Amino acid sequence: MRTIFKQEIEQLGNDLIAMAKDTSTAISAAATALEQADLDLAQRVIDADKRIDESQRSVDEQAVSLLARQAPVASDLRVVVTALRLSSTIERMGDLARHVADVARGRYPETALSGRSHEVVLKMAQQAAKVAEQVVRLLEDNDLDLAASIEHDDEIIDAMHRQTFELVLDENEPLTRQEVVDLVLLGRYLERFGDHGVSVARRISYLVTGDLTNAVVEVPEV
Amino acid sequence: MRTIFKQEIEQLGNDLIAMAKDTSTAISAAATALEQADLDLAQRVIDADKRIDESQRSVDEQAVSLLARQAPVASDLRVVVTALRLSSTIERMGDLARHVADVARGRYPETALSGRSHEVVLKMAQQAAKVAEQVVRLLEDNDLDLAASIEHDDEIIDAMHRQTFELVLDENEPLTRQEVVDLVLLGRYLERFGDHGVSVARRISYLVTGDLTNAVVEVPEV
């Protein structure tokens, strides 16, 4: 019984890692699609989101089936419930990568932004891609240095998010209405992407350090 | 054992209803704060979000404790896992109500918007408040007519959301940069609020109609 449980938990972990890898690929490709106005790449990100949604469905079904058949308690239970939370958070990161790609696709053959606003958003997107890549490694290795690094990188995203507001609110900054809209929405999507990365990092930290209640109850918005 | 389980499930349901009521109060007050540039009311919404966060923590702890002690299976298990999902969704609605109140507070003593954009956003906020109120009643009564009505009202929110884009993209519409930013963000917050209402409605529908897998696995973004 115990061995089967361990195998199933391992499968769940591997599926979450695969989901996180798909999400990492998606945000990284969305960043490039934004940078280069690459329509094919944007479309691939949009199409690939379905696979992330399906992975979440599969993880959730496995987790619930595991709860039903194995009735885990204590730390085992919290690991399974945390897997449910993580699948939801990672799926949301996939949605946000898709939203970024949607903007790139919508402005093709132009880039969505230009000049300083293009630069800031690209840096934000690249930083978000860095967060996603670290989320994958954190799920693989449970290395808490990565959790700290994700929190740090999210602060950088937040600082760049504030820069986007300075840019849009500067009436001397030459921006069309469409550019203002895109800058505000891309800023919001990428800031939320970073927040979700922090949420994953905190849950894993709690699990690893044995703070099991915090691993499972909702992490407040960061 | 069974009686205790039923009592605990009932408690979980009551706590979710209380959370949904707090969220309904919050979005309704946020709408009024936007309309009337009411600083005190905006501040009350912001402060009250902590209580919603605490309620979520409590619901999540109860649900996990219930899983650990009662090891429910089949439909009972799915009810508990659905409660975990609903608490997360309703908490997020609370956050979005707070974000709306944040904008109202930030523009005091002025209203955030004026003219046509003020009107559209107020209608969206009132429609979001209607969704929240129906979510409360749906949780109380499991009346599937309400679920259909929530889906319908969310479509109205989406249509108004499209109107906000028409307004901001019309270069002849006299809007400051700050107004464009506020219109885009308020539109996004309220559109997401409606989506989360639909997510609650679908989960409850699935539970009531016996489509238990769909009740528990993540509902795709609507």
Automatic annotation (TrEMBL), chains A, B:
GO process terms (BP): intracellular phosphate ion homeostasis; negative regulation of phosphate metabolic process; phosphate ion transport
Domain of life: Bacteria
InterPro entries xref list: PhoU (IPR028366), PhoU-like_sf (IPR038078), PhoU_dom (IPR026022)
Principal location class: cytoplasm
Protein's UniProt keywords contain Heme: no
Domain PhoU as annotated: residue spans: 18-102, 122-204
Classification via Gene3D superfamilies: Phosphate transport system protein phou homolog 2, domain 2
Entry-linked SUPFAM superfamilies: PhoU-like (SSF109755)
Keyword Endoplasmic reticulum: no
Protein location: Cytoplasm
Gene Ontology CC terms: cytoplasm
Pfam families per record: PhoU
Keywords: Cytoplasm, Phosphate transport, Transport
Subunit field text: Homodimer.
Similarity annotation: Belongs to the PhoU family.
Function: Plays a role in the regulation of phosphate uptake.
Name by which UniProt lists this protein: Phosphate-specific transport system accessory protein PhoU
Organism annotation: Bogoriella caseilytica
Lineage, top ranks: Bacteria, Bacillati, Actinomycetota, Actinomycetes, Micrococcales
